[in-house]
Structure formats: C-alpha cells, structure tokens
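Appendix B, record 7
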Amino acid sequence: MPKLFRRLFASHDPKGAMQPLYQAIVQEGRQPHWYLEGKVPDTVDGRFDMIVAILAQVMMRLESLDAAQESVWLTELFIDDMDGQLRQEGIGDVVVGKHIGSMMSALGGRLSAYRAALSGETELSEALNRNLYRGSPPTGSALAYVESRLRAYWVRLGSVTRPALIAGELG
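Structure tokens (predicted):
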C-alpha cells in the first residue's frame, strides 16, 4: 500500500526530463573556445549571452521538431537556473522577479534575432555584435570564429532527432 500512496502523491516535475539537454546547453556555452578564440567577454553577462545563443538554437530546433512543450520546459529550467544564480549573487526576493523578466525579454529578443539570422533574413554577424558582444565587437577574426562555429552548430543540430536532443545530444 505505501507504494501506491507514493505514486499517487509523488510530485513529478515533467521538466526534469529536459535536465540533460539543459546541462548540455550550459556546458556548450561554457566551453573555453568561445571566450578565448571568439573573444566573448568572460563575464557574467558574456556567459549569459553565450548560453542564450546556444539555447536559442536548441529552442529553434525543438520548434522544428514540433516539440513546443519540451521547449516550454527547457525555458522553465533556464528561468529556474537564472533565479538560482541571481540569489547566489545576493539579489533579494524583491528584485529577482524584475531581473528574471529582463532576462526573459533578452532571451526573446535574441531568439528572434538568431532565428532571422540563421534563416538568412539578416546577417548573423549583426545579431552577434548586438546581442553577444553588446555593441562592442571584437576583432574580425574573433567574430568570424564565433559566427562560423554557431553556423556549424546549427547545421549539426539539424540532424539531431527529438529523442537524442532531449537526451542532451547536441550533435
């Protein structure tokens, strides 16, 4: 009988299934090559922007796989992580929500910018200058490095199946 009660009253969080994918995104966004060869600022903001660049591509891939619910869960994991990061930095309850709102707005804007760039409507270099480098572009070789790596990443994601992606395999 206790087993039945555990199943009935257990709180199952469905977004937990997206944890391997989220961890893979964060791991990819923290790879040193982005910051060394690509000259992405190795700051809290720079790491946020790099993770969001990878997250945006994964969300677009989930969209193409008709995995809208999984994309929502992935976004919720991102919010949970950012909330925890802010609290670790000492941001209080009163203003955490405002910061999360700003981060979600940034995610939405970057998602739109990267979607337009990767579909050929705009230039990826412009989106990177504005969103990843925040208007302070690095040398041409660093920008070219990040642009080529993100384009290659996008191509690899295009061949990843839904189950593999959810399992955290990014191509």
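Remarks on this record: The chain has one domain: 16-25+41-166. The mean pLDDT is 89.
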